[in-house]
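Sample A.
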Amino acid sequence: MVVMDDKYNGWRYLILSFALSDKMVMDAVLAVSTFHLSHKSGGTLPVRPDKLYAKAILGLQNRSSLDEYDMLTRQSIFVAIITLLVGVMVNGSSDFPILFHMLQSALDAVGGEGGLGNAHAQESFDCLHYNGNLHPDHALTFYLNAYLRQQAYDIYLERATMGPHGTLDPNKIEQFKETLVMFPEGSLGEHSLVWPTFIAASESLKDEHRLYFKQFLEKQYHRNGFLNLQQALKLLDKIWARSSYTNWPALLPEPRVFIM
């Protein structure tokens, strides 16, 4: 999920360009769009998003032998899979593991990212700092976003390493909350902090922290309507209902949804 919607937004200049010239990618884009619109309209659209989704999946199945295709077709296959991954965020579907496996298999088939002719992989990987340089007026926002992600990464890694019986420094959760508070209501990039906030919430023990993180995630759900957030909130309730030493990283695969 992009932090800033500008001319560098790959969803606009890359995904939509592919969709105009490739029916499979267009089906994927339309599926994601109609899933989103269907939820917002209460399911009153004249077209069924699941049919468009099925068409995109069929298109991928028909192009399963990546080594037979040229670079442009390979790229369109990856674009379609990535677009459908956004779709399972929107509709909260449990298809995430299937699509992610398709993405991994496709990468293996072309010999990794190099098989896609990607000359900007490093810039993309470090996109927050990269965008901070592109938009110096928002450099602090990008810095805070990256800082929160790093904190969440450290929290997850420490809990996954120590298992259910270790004790994480509670100040790390307070530090995360204090950093998140620095984001004004509706500020740039707030929507992209779902995953870091979910991680901090999973580790939190204090009621005040849990309430704050839950309200933040609920706010993002009411703003974008992505059903994966409902699944994330249900999983948090399950984690919090257990003992203080729950090995919550082991529970993350259970919902089979893409929380981001």
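Sample B, a different protein:
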Amino acid sequence: TATMVETFSQTPVSPRSWTYPVGITRARLLGLTPATRYNITICVGNSFGTGPLIYELVWTHIAEPTQPDTPEVLKKGQSTITVKLKPVINEFGPVSKYKIIVSTDERNFFEDNCLKSWIESQNDNLTYYITAELCPKDVLNETEFVVGDGKRYSCDSDKSWYNVPLASKDQYHVSLGIVSSFQGLTKTSYSSASPSHNGVILLYAPPDEEDGVSEGLLTFLKIAIVIGGLLLVMSIVVFLLIRRKYGGHRYI
């Protein structure tokens, strides 16, 4: 019998029992919940009764984390992209940290072991890089994050990640990853491109907004200024012509 003692799962974990024939010395206990501590109890029985109980406390391995929601692009500036991040409720282990990934091409996958810093990616001719790592306490609720703000971010003391300012001539795509580490195992999951495809969703930041002002509004203001200037010039010209024509006449 396996009885749950503690778990990372948000759903109830029911006890499970198995019965095996005489002579079995090894058995795989199926149907257990990942990242859960169980009290495993073994009892041997025959026609004369049951023997003493033997028990042991064990953890099941963590599984691949729950996939994050895709970052929502809020606006794009000259060298930044502001996105909204949503926290992940991971059913299969702890949330150890978040990764924010930037890519310059519309790929739906990448080699996880090739994810590096911006400068390392430049040296290796990669089109994607880790721009920041955030701790779970930084994403407890929906959080706005500015990609390209020029700061350094780190969730541990081993390494900090440079959130390099973005080049205005390039198109960028943003993805969110979650890292789960527990008892020597590490699992990572990234936002998916579609419900039936596991990979990275690459979001294009629409160029119709710049520093909070829409391009349409800027165009309208420019046209209005030009028209206003032309009307002013025409008014001055008409005034000068009238003054020149009637300026020398005196009325009695």
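Observation for Sample B: The mean pLDDT is 82.
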